């Protein structure tokens, strides 16, 4: 089917076009043309203002739609998560399994491999843990943390079949193993780590390229020891995920990071849990009840357990609270994550031949419509 979306501003991933229409055919973007130049064989769909943008891509999604990946690492869970996030303009997700038994990670990977990559919204998998520093475990259970064993390569090598992220503590793994993981094509990120600046710098030389939920569960920037945060801000050829909710990081800290690295190297993440896309205020993780209190998801110890936001909430926070240009905030939720995952030849921008993943946002930046691979969902 050929259709043209008109009546809204068109953000193509880089700049915003006014009085233009977005042309799509099947599951591909065709072009952006003036509204008065829509070909006759295209069905014209009039939108009532707002902005159409490339569909959002969330690289850290623990759950959604009432389910959590660790609790049931199945295809059904993944599809439910993707559907829960689609309500907020998110057309592609990287489901995230946190520190657990090796079988849980392997089942999550196998389930992701079974999903229809074009139409399910599942683009790969993010394994967060278990090679973490116990001092920065956060909500991850200490008994689930461990050092890398030879047997772990059986599931790590399965990650190579998918776009994937493995988050680890650089000080808890040998650099030659980081290099081996990177050479498999897996994106290596630092997280839940108490590493020194020099340890991160060495890991970066061996393939570490990203930082998971910047500022959280990592050694902080100090005058004599820059720590993981200092490494994230100063290593220019790295990217960092940012939970923009005003809870996981102070607005001034977020602005400092964006100014230091440039928004082109900061991608927004939700770090969302089971409650996203539902009215739920509680859910179970590791057999323990997690509840939402004043916008925070916490366990019985009061530790943060993911976030209560969607990726759209993060975009709106960047626009309304951080006062970033809308084009930057939208890019940080679409083009930048696609670039980090080396999927920017397919997603994140409205270029001819790219997948027609589209979100329509109204004038208040609420989601008014979503198309994944050209199909309205």
From TrEMBL:
Keywords: Carbohydrate metabolism, Hydrolase, Metal-binding. Gene3D superfamilies: Metal-dependent hydrolases, Urease, subunit C, domain 1. InterPro entries: Amidohydro-rel, GlcNAc_6-P_deAcase, Metal-dep_hydrolase_composite, Metal_Hydrolase. Its EC number is 3.5.1.25. GO terms for molecular function: N-acetylglucosamine-6-phosphate deacetylase activity. Residues 52-362 form the Amidohydrolase-related domain. Coiled coil: none annotated. NCBIfam families: nagA. Belongs to the metallo-dependent hydrolases superfamily. NagA family. This is N-acetylglucosamine-6-phosphate deacetylase. It comes from Reinekea marina.
